[in-house]
């Protein structure tokens, strides 16, 4: 492959110069709150049309429906899906602990509502195993068999099935209605992004765990037993154990085959859900709303990407919410899309949601006319239908080896979600899974990768020196980068790793500085006392000496000698003990800061012209503590913080950056920032980060700009990088 090269020639840009060159403006292109409110209240015919089409999508595509292109495919697809709705609806109703006929209702009304308000062309709305088992766990918890025991003949106790089933229907309808309200509200406030917190490994692990619950719930129909039901954590284990004991130990004398039973003909009148049950199902309704939407939008986006159209996530929330809300009035339970039916709808030629209407007609005919034909259908047959439809979910166990190879953190999320769903039941399992998934995100940002960057010779690239062999550190300059945003959870670690990676321990340096200053002060006081003592001796000698002139001259010479000795250790008010090291080829490697200015704060002006302008070379005295001596011996004179990965700053990160400038400045190390995004610069300005001690001239557009600035100041530009502002790739 032919090599390519490019040349860039420009001046070195700090933030102040960038504002001038790029003509940074203070205007805002975003409308104000008042303008947005005014715009939202403005009414016009085009705006009204746009609003109607966005809230009722069927008005946008149905008038342009092409019978020639779509009718045949939608007809075949609708009939195929409708036939699937019949057994699945009745089977999944058993998962919800309801009579099979309510599964048929659920396959009818919500599908028609979604036809009007949905934006996906291929998904099949209706009953789904995971949602059904979530509904069933609530209905059995709030309406257990023990609450409906009545006295039978011959003094026996029996369960009033009619009363129990009627109450369970009320619970399911109340839960479904409330879940729909949650979904509508989330959609209206444009909260569709909430599902992004449910990662794909979480959703797949949760559905796999739910599939296990579904299988266990069908064991009683397969074996023809009626074990006691358990709720709460570890309920899955108790079910399994009870079923095995009941079946294989012959504890049940019932050997008749349990069948579907009566399927009443006709449709029932709508009835408002029981509002007194809302407080008891509030948390479950929210969980059902989130899980149902997560499954629905994931399938919808999959088919939309495949066929090249867009699915509105917020409108999908509204459509699903309306399907559940309306269904709650018609004795339906919560719905979502089904993978198996959606695949059939797409593969048999379905192009629009007209296929859903046709499938609803098939279900309606069954409910009105031929429902009685299914009354003698054994429930064991419905259980086998459930097992067959769970095949796709159990294939998700193949995620484990795949995630082991690709991403072990996602694997951990999958396993924790699966295990918590199995052991803690569906509601608690979902809560634990989301909490754990959030923790992995926090830990990833709290424990980022830190690196020291080096220059690739002949380029303006700065790469991790531990990863790239050709990336070489620039003598005297440390370039430090974090892989994530600096904020309150990792700000302290950022400072610690900066000291570790740069080899500069601020605490030891400041301690050594204080000791050096104290030692200097003691030496000065000692010299003063010695001078005074000598002066007294000389005065006494003058009185007793006959050679007064000679004594006077000697005294004046001693007076001049003492300040000269003192100047050998001090210049001005501080200590300057800087040594310029030289490499083998004779070029400067940077300055060794072995002692420091006595001020504890930075200069009010930009310290670009400060300690490095002194050419004096003085040998430092040895420290008594060998470790502290080593801590002070550093050839670093400048540190560049690459914050290009930082997307925002908070008060903690601002304070951390300020303390870095202050503390490192006290030991004559100059700090620069590079790669700061415009939004972060604005946040720093708002937080009062920039000042006389931290001017904007310390902030550079790129790391390369900062390096060139430092090297130009030191007169080392051409040596270190072998490049100037004219960079060749």
Automatic annotation (TrEMBL):
Q: Which CDD domains match?
A: STAS_SulP_like_sulfate_transporter
Which coarse location class applies to the principal site listed for this UniProt protein? membrane
- UniProt KW Oxidoreductase keyword: no
Q: Name one GO cellular component term.
A: membrane
The STAS domain covers: 467-710
Its transmembrane ranges are 92-117, 171-193, 230-249, 354-374, 411-443
Q: Does the keyword Membrane apply?
A: yes
Q: Which GO terms describe its molecular function?
A: secondary active sulfate transmembrane transporter activity
Subcellular location(s): the record lists: Membrane
**Membrane topology label:** Multi-pass membrane protein
Write out the entry's keywords from A to Z: Membrane, Transmembrane, Transmembrane helix
InterPro entries the record matches: S04_transporter_CS, SLC26A/SulP_dom, SLC26A/SulP_fam, STAS_dom, STAS_dom_sf
Which branch of life, at top level?
Eukaryota
A family per Pfam: STAS
Give me the ranges of the annotated region Disordered: 517-575, 597-630
From start to end residue, where is composition biased (Basic and acidic residues)? 522-537, 553-567
By what name is this protein known? Solute carrier family 26 member 6-like
Q: Which organism is it from?
A: Stegastes partitus
């Amino acid at each position: 492959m032919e090599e390519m090269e490019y040349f860039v020639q420009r001046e070195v840009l700090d933030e102040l110069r960038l504002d001038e060159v790029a003509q940074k403006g203070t205007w805002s292109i975003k409308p104000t709150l008042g303008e947005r409110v005014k715009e939202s209240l403005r009414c016009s015919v085009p705006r009204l049309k746009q609003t109607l089409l966005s809230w009722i999508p069927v008005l946008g595509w149905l008038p342009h429906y092409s019978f020639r292109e779509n009718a045949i495919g939608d007809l075949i697809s609708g009939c195929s899906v409708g036939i699937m709705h019949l057994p699945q609806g009745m089977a999944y109703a058993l998962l919800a602990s309801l009579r099979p006929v309510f599964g048929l209702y659920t396959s009818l009304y919500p599908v028609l509502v979604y036809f009007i308000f949905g934006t996906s062309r291929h998904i099949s709305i209706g009953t789904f195993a995971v949602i059904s088992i979530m509904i069933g766990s609530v209905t059995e918890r709030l309406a257990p068999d023990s609450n409906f025991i009545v006295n039978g003949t011959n003094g026996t106790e029996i369960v009033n099935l009619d009363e129990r089933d009627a109450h369970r229907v009320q619970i399911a309808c109340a839960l479904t209605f409330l879940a729909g309200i949650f979904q509508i509200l989330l959609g209206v406030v444009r909260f569709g992004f909430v599902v992004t917190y449910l990662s794909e490994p979480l959703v797949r692990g949760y559905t796999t765990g739910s599939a296990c619950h579904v299988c266990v719930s069908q064991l009683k129909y397969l074996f023809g037993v009626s074990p006691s039901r358990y709720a709460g954590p570890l309920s899955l284990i108790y079910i399994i154990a009870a079923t095995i004991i009941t079946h294989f130990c012959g504890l049940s004398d019932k050997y008749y085959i349990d069948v579907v039973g009566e399927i009443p003909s006709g449709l029932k009148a709508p009835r408002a859900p029981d509002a007194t049950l809302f407080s008891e199902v509030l948390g479950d309704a929210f969980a059902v709303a989130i899980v149902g939407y997560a499954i629905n939008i994931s399938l919808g986006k999959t088919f939309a990407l495949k066929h090249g159209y867009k699915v509105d996530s917020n409108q999908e929330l509204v459509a699903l919410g309306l399907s559940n809300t309306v269904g709650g009035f018609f004795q339906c339970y919560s719905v979502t899309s089904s993978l198996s039916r959606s695949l059939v709808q797409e593969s048999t030629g379905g192009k629009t949601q007209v296929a859903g209407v046709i499938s609803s007609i098939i279900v309606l005919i069954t409910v009105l006319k031929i429902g009685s034909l299914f009354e003698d259908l054994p429930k064991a047959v419905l259980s086998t239908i459930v097992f067959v439809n769970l095949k796709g979910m159990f294939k998700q166990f193949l995620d484990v080896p795949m995630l082991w190879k690709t991403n072990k953190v996602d694997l951990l999320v999958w396993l924790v979600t699966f295990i918590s769903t199995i052991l803690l039941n569906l509601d608690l399992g979902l809560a634990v899974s989301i909490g754990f998934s959030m923790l992995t995100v926090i830990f990833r940002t709290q424990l980022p990768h830190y690196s020291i960057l080096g220059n690739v010779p002949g380029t303006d690239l700065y790469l991790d020196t531990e990863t790239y062999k050709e990336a070489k550190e620039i003598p005297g300059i440390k370039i430090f980068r974090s892989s994530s945003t600096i904020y309150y959870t990792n700000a302290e670690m950022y400072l610690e790793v900066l000291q570790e990676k740069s080899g500069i321990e601020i605490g030891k340096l400041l301690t050594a500085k204080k000791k050096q200053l104290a030692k200097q002060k003691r030496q000065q006081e000692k010299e003063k006392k010695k001078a005074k003592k000598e002066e007294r001796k000389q005065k006494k000698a003058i009185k007793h000496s006959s050679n007064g002139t000679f004594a006077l001259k000697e005294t004046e010479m001693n007076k001049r000698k003492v300040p000269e000795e003192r100047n050998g250790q001090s210049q001005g008010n501080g200590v300057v003990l800087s040594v310029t090291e030289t490499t083998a080829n004779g070029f400067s490697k940077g300055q060794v800061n072995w002692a420091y200015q006595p001020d504890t704060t930075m200069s009010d002006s930009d310290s670009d012209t400060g300690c490095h302008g002194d050419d004096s070379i003085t040998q430092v005295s040895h420290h008594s503590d060998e470790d502290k001596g080593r801590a002070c011996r550093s050839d670093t004179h400048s540190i560049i913080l690459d914050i290009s990965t930082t997307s925002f700053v908070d008060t903690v990160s601002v304070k951390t950056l300020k303390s870095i400038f202050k503390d490192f400045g006290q030991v004559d190390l100059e700090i620069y920032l590079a790669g700061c995004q415009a939004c972060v610069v604005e946040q720093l300005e708002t937080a009062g980060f920039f000042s006389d001690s931290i001017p904007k001239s310390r902030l550079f557009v790129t790391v390369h700009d900062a390096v060139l600035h430092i090297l130009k100041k030191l007169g080392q530009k051409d040596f270190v990088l072998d490049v100037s502002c004219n960079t060749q790739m």
